[in-house]
Amino acid sequence: MEYNLADLFESVVDVVPDREALVYLDHPGTGAERRLTYAGLDSAANRVAHHLLDSGVRPGEHLGLHLYNGVEYLQTVLACLKARIVPVNVNYRYVEEELVYLYRDADLAALVFDAEFEDRVAGALPRVPGLRHLLRVGAGTERVAGAVPFAAAEASGSPGRGFPARSGDDQFIIYTGGTTGMPKGVMWRQEDLFFAGLGGGAPTGEPVKAPQELAERVAAGGSGITFFPTPPLMHGTSTLTAFIGFNFGQRIVLHRKFVPEEVLRTIERERVTSVSLVGDAMLRPLIDALGGPLKGTDCSALFSVSSSGAIMSETVRRQFRELVPNALLLNNFGSSESGFNGTATEDSGPERGFRIRVNTRTRVVDPATHEPVAAGEVGRVAQCGHVPLGYYNDPAKTAETFFRRDGQRWVLLGDMATVDEDGVVTVLGRGSQCINTGGEKVYPEEVEQALKAHPDVYDALVAGVPDARWGNHVAAVVQLRAGAPRPSLADIQGHCRTRLAGYKVPRQLVITETIQRSPSGKADYRWAREVAGAAEQP
C-alpha cells in the first residue's frame, strides 16, 4: 500500500467498519438526515466508482463536482479516488460563461451536478464537447440530456471493491482563485496532499511513518471526535477537513448550506467537538445567534474552532470566548498551493500583525532569487517538500510559482511576509492586494482588523482606489451592525489612528448594506474596489 487516499480510507474502514463516519443534515426545516457507518460509506462510494468505470470514464480522466454539501459530494470524491479518476471541485456560484471556462480548462470527462444548477449546466454543455458523462443529484427537469440520476447510478454499481492497484502518484486537483483572475487548477500528487494538506494522518502530532500505521492508530484509539466543516466542500479546506476526520476514524457532520442557527443546534445535538469556518463572516453570525435567539445553546463539547482563508479578528475572537470560554480558537494559515503552513500566535492582532508559527518546510524568501530573507526584511512565503506539481493547463503560471532549490521542489505563495529572529512569520497580506499610497505599502487585512474593532462595524473590506495625489488611497467599505449610528469618516479615522500608522488610515469611507464575500466567507476584493471606485471620492 502506498500513500494513496483511497487505500488509506479503506484501511480505516477495515478496522472500524461499524463506526459512524458521516452525518448529513439537509436544509434546515426539512428534518431530513442520513447517517453512514464507515462500511456504509465505503460501499456507497464503491457503487459510484464502478458505475463511472462501467460507463467508460477512464482512470486519469477528470470529473467535476458541481454540488452543494451532501453525502453525494464526499461519496463521489471517494469514488473517484477508488477508481483513479481525478476529482475537480467546481464553484457553484459560477455563471454559465465561467463554467464553460472551468469545464474546458479542467478537461472534464464527467460531471456530477446538483439539480438546482441544471439550467447553467445545460447552457454550458454545448461548448464543452469533451464532457460526455453526467450524473444529476436530486430531482430535475431533465434539461440536461442524457444525465443519469445519481440514485440510479449508485444502484447500478457493485458495492464491492475489486479495483486495480493505486499509486501515491494518483492526482487530486483543487481549483482556486477567480476573484483576481480566472481560476487555476492546483495539481497534487495524493502522497504530497496527504502530508501537506492532511498532516500525514496526525495534523497535531507525529505524521505516520508508513501507510499501514494509519489504520493501526485508528484501531488503537477510540471514537468521540466530531468534525463539522461548515463552509462549502467545493473549497479545498472543507474537503480536506473531512479527510482529516476520516484519517482519524472519526465522525464528520455536514449541512447543505451555512445557516448560523442550525449550525448551533447541530453543535448541541451532535456534541460537535471541532468546527471549521472562514473568518469573521462565519463566526460573527454564530456570536449573534448565541447572544440572541439561541442563547443558552449547549456548546460544552466544542473543543476547537479553526479558520482558514480569512482571519478571525481579535475583537470577534474575544466576543466568542465570552460565550464559549472553553473552545480553542485557531487562525490557520495555508493555501490550495501549500496545504497547511502554520497557526497564528495568541498575540496576533492589529498592533503586532498576523504572526504565524510555521512548520519546518515554510520559509520567507526573496521572490527573485528564492534565497531566504534576513530577519525583518520583506519577502514572500514559500514552502518546500510536499508541494503540488503545478497548475493544470498553465505552464507559464506554473513556471512563475513553482521552482527547485537545493534539490527540492518549492512553491512561491502570493503572501508577503517578514520573519523574526525566533522564526515567527508575520504575514502582511497578499501582494496582489497591496495598496501603494504615497510610496508606502498598505496591506488590507491589517486595516480590516482595526476597522472590525470599532463597536459599530459588523464587517469590512479595504481596497485601493486611484488617487491623483497619492497614486492610490485606502478606502474602507463597511457594513454596520444592525441599528448602529452611521459614523463619519472622521470617526473611523480617529478610531484607526489609535491602532495604525497614519498612512494606513482610510481616506474614504463607503457604507454598504452587506459586504459581498464568497460562500465560504473569503473576501471579494474586486467587488470592494468597484464599490469604492464608484462612490463619491473624498
UniProtKB/TrEMBL annotation:
Q: Gene3D superfamilies given for it?
A: 3.30.300.30, N-terminal domain of ligase-like (3.40.50.12780)
The chain positions of domain AMP-dependent synthetase/ligase read 10-382
Which stretches make up the AMP-binding enzyme C-terminal domain? Answer: 446-522
UniProt-listed SUPFAM superfamilies = Acetyl-CoA synthetase-like
Organism superkingdom: Bacteria
Q: Which NCBIfam families does the protein's record reference?
A: PRK07798.1
Q: What is this protein called?
A: Acyl-CoA synthetase
